[in-house]
Amino acid sequence: MNALSTKYLRNSILSVSLSAVLLLSCTDKNKSDAAEAVLFRDVTLIDGNGGAPIEHTDMLIQADTIAAIGKNLDTAGVKVINLTGKTIMPALISTHVHVGTLKGTTTKSVNYTRANILAQLKKYEDYGVGTIQVMGTDRPMLFASGLRDSSLNGLLPGARMYSAGYGFGVPQNAPPVDFGMDQVYRPVSAGQIPSEMDSLAKLKPSVVKMWVDDFGGKFKKMDPAVYQAIITEAHKHHIRVASHLYYAADARKLVANGIDIIGHSIRDTVIDDALIAQIKAKGVAYIPTLSLDEYAYIYARKPEWIDDEFFKASLEPGVYAMITSKKYQDNLKKSPAYPKSVAAFETALRNLKKLYVAGVLVAMGTDSGATPVRAQGFSEHLELELMVQAGLTPLQAIGIATKNSAELLRIAADYGTLEKGKKADLIILTNNPATNIKNTRSIEAVYKAGKAVSKGPLNK
After folding, report:
1. Is the dihedral of CA 403, 408, 411, 413 positive or negative?
2. How many helices (H) and strands (E) does the chain have?
3. Sign for the pseudo-dihedral over CA of 389, 390, 391, 396
């Protein structure tokens, strides 16, 4: 045996030995995890199903799963945490966000790094957001590095990250390239779609995202022949399609053509009963992103939460100084778009209420992270407040942000509600949000898969 063969054999033996040690270590860890149990004693439980909170109940967590819920559960052999006066609710799920391209006061492709993505996933988690879906602005690094898959498999800290991969836009038009969206497919004709969709499907995106509208007249709209081809080709791969839109007329055409998810509110007019019926009949889901529409004008004045530390902690460096400056506020007030933005927000509120009452599946999304003023984490709590402002009850809003969002992501078998057999993704709150939706901000602890992972954004 030559020296090279001997060295190869020695290295192989070492590798096998190390693998055996790691296997034993993992086996021991799995045994340890399986034996771990914690019991939350005497808590108020909001389970996400929409019913009244369950008072003075217990919850038993075994490893990563809810093992039992009920009064006076057996405490033998488990760690007991007394939560008298506290409330537990499911972790939030945000189905329309963006990560990686935001940093400081910029949104650029150069910001898209592993470290930046992980920091933002952790920020969402600190705010009680257990799962997110990034809508079409991701970049090759996410998939080549395995970061997306590692996140979904629970191997990384922070919120679990679903991704729509690379969305579809219009050449030299929406979405704006200088906002870090240079990886978006921009077909010049419908004939390009099959090969582009084949390429995207290999990444296993959770949905396909497309930008259809004109961004308030700034851009050319997507050709209907192109978006029809996107829908058709995505469905061949059994992938749903979500659309950025604004106008009721576009929504009507998209629903007729088979769209699966309306990714923003209809904001140009109050939706009519015929379109509502069409949306419901075709099972189209609706993500209102109300906070996006409030952010479009609200900094022209100082909103009541502007000095709230819970809000300020969510901002990137430099953003607070920017949005509170007189120059920024004056520019918003004087903008020709200001009255339109205010009206769009009011219309969005009305349309959310109408669609929800009609029984359309409404899920939570915020478009947080798309620009510096759309604060990651805080936006999700603001979205809850705005849904209540639209006329929903706090428990209905919470159901949208938990159960309904899990249904949209097709993960409701494990997430979205707190029930026996489901994963223990939850938030412990000082105060009960059923009486005041702003109490979702009173975070004492965040649990991911049965493990305490955060004390909230203000208690690091």
Report:
1. positive
2. 16, 17
3. negative
- For residue 444, the 8-state DSSP code is E
Give residue 269's pLDDT band: very low, low, confident or very high (50, 70, 90): very high
Q: HSE (CB half, 13 Å, CA atoms) of 404?
A: 22
Q: What is the 3-state secondary structure (H, E, C) of 185-233?
A: ECCCCHHHHHHHHHHHHCCCCCCEEEECCCCCCCCCCCCHHHHHHHHHH
CA 288 – CA 348 distance, rounded (Å):
7
Where do the DSSP E strands lie in 388-454?
426-429, 443-448, 451-454
Q: Which amino acid is at 383?
A: E
Pairing of strands 92-97, 129-134: parallel
pLDDT, tens digit, 9 for 90 and up, residues 379-391: 999 999 999 999 9
Distance CA 271, CA 60 (A): 45
Instruction: Report d(CA 251, CA 256) in Å as an integer.
Output: 8
**C-alpha distances in Å from residue 301, one per residue of 45, 322, 331, 377, 401:** 37, 13, 11, 22, 28
The pairing of strands 208-211 and 160-163 is unpaired
Q: Which distant-in-sequence residues (6+ apart) come within 8 Å of 75 by Cβ?
A: 39, 41
- pLDDT one-digit tens code per residue, 121-169: 999 999 999 999 999 999 999 999 999 999 999 999 999 999 999 999 9
Q: Which two tokens stand for residue 335?
A: 């903008």
For residue 387, give every residue at least 6 positions away whose Cβ sits within 8 Å of its Cβ, in sequence order, or none: 288, 290, 352, 396, 397, 400, 437
The residue behind tokens 């799995």 is 30
**The predicted structure's pLDDT at residue 36:** 80
pLDDT tens, 281-305?
Answer: 999 999 999 999 999 999 999 999 9
Six-digit token pair at 78? 């488990």
Match domain 90-409 to its CATH number in 3.40.1550.10, 3.20.20.140, 3.50.30.60, 2.160.20.80.
3.20.20.140
- Which of 19, 90, 176, 51 is closest to 402 using CA atoms? 90
Give the helix/strand (H/E) hosting 132: strand 129-134
Direct distance between the N- and C-terminal alpha carbons of the chain, in angstroms, rounded to an integer: 58
CATH code of domain 36-86+427-454: 2.30.40.10
In degrees rounded to 5, what are phi and psi of residue 10?
-60, -45
Residue 238 has pLDDT above 80, yes or no: yes
* 408: its two tokens: 């949209």
Query: What are all long-range contacts of 56-60, with beta carbons under 8 Å and residues at least 24 apart?
Result: 59/88, 59/418
Do 81 and 40 touch, CB atoms closer than 8 A?
Answer: yes
d(CA 388, CA 401): 12
Q: What's the CA gap between 214 and 221, in Å, rounded?
A: 5
Of the candidates 366, 373, 386, the residue with the CA atom closest to the CA atom of residue 315: 373
